[in-house]
Amino acid sequence: MWICFGGSYSGSLSAWxxxxxPHLVYGAIASSxxxxxxxxxxxxxxxxxxxxxxxxxxxxxxxxAAIEEAFKTVDEKIxxxxxxxxxxxxxxxxxDLSDVDDHFQFASSLADPFWGTYILQNLCLIxxxxxxxxxxxxxFECYLCY
Length: 146
Hints:
By secondary structure, this protein is mainly alpha-helical. Helix content is 50%, strand content 9%. A two-stranded parallel ribbon has the order 1-2.
């Protein structure tokens, strides 16, 4: 017998594995695991926005507005084929972004640092730092605030 465990997607897999193979798995720990799949999980965006604007983690309404404006600009450029060249130049993409799948992957790659920072901030692994709008320090040699 086995005990499966995981967090997020791997947590979902752990729970589903237990359901599918109860004769092999004694138990499953599914931390932060979305076990009920949803096509459009808009509530996650609300949670992210609340976190990025929370003053307790150095978030602010200004930070949220800056991030929203940045993604609005990216979305507008993706929607206009002629402006894709601007994104390719500004972000120094390795290939062109002409395929629709590339648009999704590109936007997702831009969002990943925010999701990761949200998760770390809420697990208290990076205390005394804002979710994305933190100041440059010796430990961090890059800016995440757009």
